[in-house]
Amino acid sequence: MAEQQAAAILEQYALRPEAPFARRAWRALRNFVVRKPLGTFGAAVILLLLIFAAFPGLFATHDPNAISPLERYQGPSASHWFGTDQFGRDVYSRIVYGARTSIIIGFGVVALSATLATLIGTISGYFGGWFDILVQRLVDIAIALPGLVFIILVIQTLLDLPVLLRLILALGVLISFGLSRVVRGASIATKQFQYVEAARVIGAGDMRIVFRHILPNVVAVVLVGASIQVGGAILIESSLSFLGYGVQPPTASWGRMLNEAREQMIRAPHLAIFPGFAIFFAVFAFNMFGDALRDVLDPRLRGSR
Question: Which of 29, 203, 205, 238 could cross-link to 255 by cystine, CB 3.0-4.6 Å?
Fold first, then answer.
């Protein structure tokens, strides 16, 4: 009798498509555009950044590393839209190529942090007990570490690896600890649902429950956190490049461009203005898109804005 009731509960929660996928996707996209204009703006900026990162040569007007001593510190003009820097390099072209660096680091960091956070948070929240206590105390220790010190330590220790990979490893591991707390909370809440108890009653194992019932319900939390953290990762990478621990010259990076412009703020303010705006719009776009995505994926917030 108990098994029949459990099976009925699982059938009740089974997903039944209400309409063809293409129609539902178009309806969801239309509703997103109408109800979340800031999120739509963020998605458009993100799409533009992805195109810049994938095909920078199609949009850059000059070689980003080409030096022209006779054109140093020129302001914005028809030949150099954002002016030139101290070496005569085209600032606009360097910003376009700098998008590739920011996108690679941003998405690489989020992919690593989301994977680690999902693994740690889901297992810790589902099994609970002494295992959860032990894992969370280790997470507490990791969160208490000074972030900048940890990042610099990793970057300076793994010198045999490319600098981009070192940045992704350091930032990805650091960000994953905070996100794992959010995933753990979602995992604890999900395992209390009736269909999880029903699956356990009919003999489903822990791994089947985790992968079949827990993970699908924490994916939305991970997606929202990851979309917001891309902007944070870009901002941290820019800060590290500004301090000299990021990508090294002549590779274009928005943070390094700001670092190189700090001594010429009065003479050539455009050197700081345009990279600063690039960082601002990238971080703003990911934050707005992540916020809108949270409203759409969280049923408690649907229709609240």
Answer: 238
CATH code at position 193: 1.10.3720.10
Residue 264 lies in a domain: yes
Total residue count of the chain as it appears in this document: 305
Q: Which two tokens stand for residue 304?
A: 């609240």
Nearest CA to 270 out of 55, 69, 102, 91 is that of 91
Say how many domains are in the chain.
1
Task: Kindly state whether residue 13 falls inside one of the protein's structural domains.
Answer: no
Check pLDDT > 60 for residue 299.
Answer: no
Encoded amino acid at 88, one letter: G
Those residues whose C-beta lies under 8 Å from the C-beta of residue 266, and which sit 6 or more positions away, are: none
Average pLDDT over residues 128-150: 86
Kindly state the helix (H) or strand (E) to which residue 136 belongs, with its residue range: helix 129-144
User: In this structure, what are the phi and psi dihedrals at residue 103, rounded to the nearest 5 degrees?
Assistant: -70, -45
Mean pLDDT of the chain: 81
What pLDDT is stored for residue 66 in this prediction?
A: 85
pTM over 0.85: no
Supply 277's token pair: 């705006």
Q: What is the pLDDT of residue 2?
A: 55
Mean pLDDT of 32-46: 85
Q: Are 134 and 196 in contact (CB under 8 A)?
A: no
- Residue 165 lies in domain: 40-60+87-297
Residue 15 within a domain: no
Assess whether pLDDT exceeds 70 at residue 213. yes
Would 243 be classed as within a structural domain? yes
CA 70 to chain centre: 40
| Cβ-Cβ contacts under 8 Å for 271 (sequence gap 6 or more) | 83, 85, 86, 91, 257, 260, 261, 264, 265
The confidence score (pLDDT) of residue 305 equals: 47
CB 83, CB 91: distance < 8 Å: yes
Which segment, 109-113, 146-150, 204-208, 265-269, is predicted with the most confidence on average? Answer: 109-113
What is the Cα Rg of the chain in Å?
23
